[in-house]
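Inputs:
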Amino acid sequence: MTATLARATAPPTAPRRRRRPTRRQGVAYLLLAPAVAVLAIGLGYPVWWQVTSSFKEFGLAQQFGQPAPWVGLDNYVRIFTSDALWAVVLRSIAFCLFNAFVTVAIGVGLALLMRAAGRWARLALQVAMLLAWAMPMVAAVTVFKWLFDWRTGVVNWLFVRAGVVEMHEHHWLASPLSFFLVASLVIIWMSVPFVALSVYAGLMQVPEEVREAARIDGASATQQFWHVTVPMIRPVLAIVLLLQIIWDLRVFGQIRLLQDGGAPVGDTNLLGNFIFELGIGRQDFAGAAAVSIFVLALTALVSWPYVRALIKELDR
Amino acid sequence: MSPRQSRTLTRWTFSALALVCAAAWAFPVYWMVSSSLMSNARLRSATPSFWPVNPTLSNYAAVVEGSSFTSALRMSLLVTGVTVVAVIAFAFLAALAVSRFRFRGRTSFVLTILLVQMLPAEGLFIAQYKMLSGAQLLNSVLGISVLYTAAIVPFTIWMLRGFVAGVPIELEEAAMVDGLSRVQAFLRITFPLLAPGLVASGVYAFLQAWNEFTIALVALPAESAKTLPLWLRSFLSASANRGVDWGEVMAASALIAVPVIVFFLFVQGRMTSGLVSGAVKG
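Outputs:
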């Protein structure tokens, strides 16, 4: 009560935060405490452990309880001079960029289709998008394994039906290239809905008059798209593409689950799988920590523009 | 053909195309449900049938009666329950601090949570595994709930911050002029207005924890501690040993997916706008 009155009667030039700053700040810190504590335990400590462990040695002696000695940059040198890591890095980046760009292209296409289609067709497409988006990842991968099953999967059957007889009992997951094709299909199927619905929301912000004006000035449909629509939805496009790149860089579960079918693990590992194998599989915790630091740094670097765009919103 | 007629014609073409795309996108979900209703003998025949012939629920019965389903369901419910409650409570308090108070370190805090929510689980799970095994918390509800809460709380703070900022402080102040204390004003005026935000973030946290696979894989290695996503994976592997029974596997997938789809349809509008709000509002 008195605080409200004091604020109401205070001269407008007096900055608000001068009043009893310590008590107000104290309450704020108290409110933050639980969240900060859980972040410190769940993320902070692991990051710290990872940074320090990447400079230590975890050999056989450490598995029997010896303290790990400091070895400086040895782990980084060992890991980053191996060809195996660079093959995985290149594969991950290529896979990520391919999926991200294809996802955004298809998403924009479907968003335009939603705008152009009639009411019921648009609703049907939106519902289909939501169904795919809502599928839990493990369930989605399992369904795709069934679709692409070598013996009784519907995809092989359709190929044979269409006259491609070689596809009879074709093992999609056995060779790396078609393995990644199936992986891409799952990932793109799951991520297109977010892009399509976000871009559609963006398209709805483009005033009909602007397109009408362009049409009257004689712009073709293609010209309207590139010179009117794209510039107006550029902010959404940028953020959606960025998010796709960030998300597609962290593909782990999909690959892991598809590998269960007996795929060549060494040729299909992405960064997350490589770390998992190094750490959990071979107990090389220092090496896994070094690769993890690399992944974290890469993510932070790619995420920075997105975070900066969000922070601009903070005090609106 | 008049321009009007040609425009109607293109609209019809686009509508037809949209329907084709909708069918293609919904097909895997349809295929899951349809296969789950057919016997394994039917699914193994040389020609697939595109709608359930002699539909039966026996696959579902077989899955639910299997010994491991109920224990996985219990584990998932426990982990998700603890996580959702912790996330909502912690994120709500932090969102209040961020949007109702000015304090030193406010911007850095928000910057940190935004950056931290981008960190991939794959970049941290080895360290998290070592931490839990060191604390004897592998395979425990507490251990994985702490990791889940830490992973989900940053985005939830950001989401709730928008809701809290949307309730004008003047409403509370007016109630205080009318004689309510600050706490009363908050509980009676602001809190009810935040209910939709709390529900939305609760469903978001539910979806994240319920579907999570990567962290669960390292934090819950024991067979008895598996959550539903891990259980589905083992179910498929076990089935593969005797030539996969796809009918049962699809029933198992549907059991996990259907509740999630229902919840998702409920919350998705808020999630989309939360993720791209900066861009859409421009």
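Remarks. The domain at 74-311 of chain A is CATH 1.10.3720.10 (MetI-like fold). Chain A touches chain B through 112 residues (CB under 8 Å).
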